[in-house]
Amino acid sequence: MPNAPDEVISTVDRSALTPIVRQALDDATAEVIDWDYHTLQ
To answer: From the centroid of its chain, how far is CA 38?
Structure first.
C-alpha cells in the first residue's frame, strides 16, 4: 500500500520536528536529538 503511515512517518526527520518542538516548548534553542515512534493499537 503506497503512502502507508509507516512509510510517511519514516520520512520525518530532525529538521522537520525541530521547529514544531521549539514552538511547543516555547524555546528557540531546543533541538531534537533522537526520536522514534510506536504504533498504537
So the answer is: 12
